[in-house]
Amino acid sequence: MVGVYIGSTTGYSGKNLMAMTLGLRFKKLGLKVGYMKPVGAVPRREDGQPGDEDAMFLQEVLGLKQNPSLVTPVVVTREFTRRAFSEDIGDLMPGIAEAYAELSQGKDVMIVAGSGNFLGSGTYCGLDGVSVCRALGARALIVDRYRDELKYDYLLRCREALGQDLAGVVLNDIPEHYRAEVDELLVPFLRRKNVPVLGVIASDPIMSAIKVSDLAERLGGKVISAHHKADRVVENFLIGTMQVENFLAHFVRHKNSAIIVGGDRSDVQLVALEGSCPCLILTGNLHPNDIILTRSEVLQTPIIMVREDTFSVAKKMENILSRHKLRDMIKVNHGVNLVASALDFERLRERLGLD
Fold it and tell me: Are residues 251 and 185 in the same domain?
C-alpha cells in the first residue's frame, strides 16, 4: 500500500482538487483507493459522527463511504484550540496512525489531504505536515499556487525537510503572462535543486467562478431582483467608481465580471446592466431606483444589495474568488480535467513506486 500526502505552501492552493484528481485517476486504473484528512478545520457531523465538511464532500466525489471520525481523527474547533493553548492535550499522532492503519486495510493507495500550509500549520499541536508524513510513511506532493509570485524558497525547504519522501511539486494557477518565466527559468532551477516539478497548471477563470446566489450569501447581502437568474456565474469583478466613459472602456474588456458600485451611481449601474454583466453589487445599503430595477428584470441581471462600502466589498470579493471552495460538480469535473491534462501522472506513479 502506498500513501501520498497532498500538502501546499499556503491554504486554498488546490489540495482538494489534487486529491480528487489523483483519487479518480487511481480508481480508473483499477486501484483500490482510500482517503484521509488527519486534521480538519471545517467541523460537521454526519450520522452523529464528528468529521470535516471538505473531507465528506471529497469522499462523495470519490465514491467512498468511510467513518468520518476515522477519516478526520482531529477536528479543530474553538474548544480544541482553547485546550491546546491552555493545557497539555497529549500526543495526537498515535490516534491518527491507528485510524490510517484501519482505513488503509485492503487499499492499494491512500490519499492523505493536508490542512493549511505544509511546514507550519499544526505545529502548535505536533501535527505539521512533515510530522504526519513521517508517522504515516507517506510521500508528499506539494502544491504551490501563484499569488503574485511562486514560493520557491518554501519548496526548497520542503525538499530539505523531506529528502526522498518528496514525491514532487505542482505549480498551480499560473497566469499567462508569467508562464514563460516559469517554464524557462523556475522549473529548470527547481529541478537542478532536486525538486521534481510534476506539473504546471494554467490559470482558469472557471475555477475561481462563483454563483450569484452564493456570492450574495458570502457578502452578507441579498438578491433583490431577477432572482430566477441567481445561478449565473461570476468570474471576476470591476469597481464602478470612475466616470462613465472611463468605466465603459474597462467594462468591455472584462466579461463575466460583477460590477461593484455605489447604490447612488445609477449612471454606472445602467451602463453595466446594458452591457450584460452577470450581476450588479450595490454598496452602502442603498436601494436602486425604479428604472434600474425595471431594467434589471427585463435584462434578467440580478442585483445584490450589501451594507458595506465599495472598498470593503472589493476586498471581500478578492478573498472570495481566491478561496471559494469546490462544491459544484460542473466545476469539479472541469478542474479535474484541467489538473489531469497538466500533471505528469506517469512520473508521479514512478516516484510513488506504483509502476
Answer: no
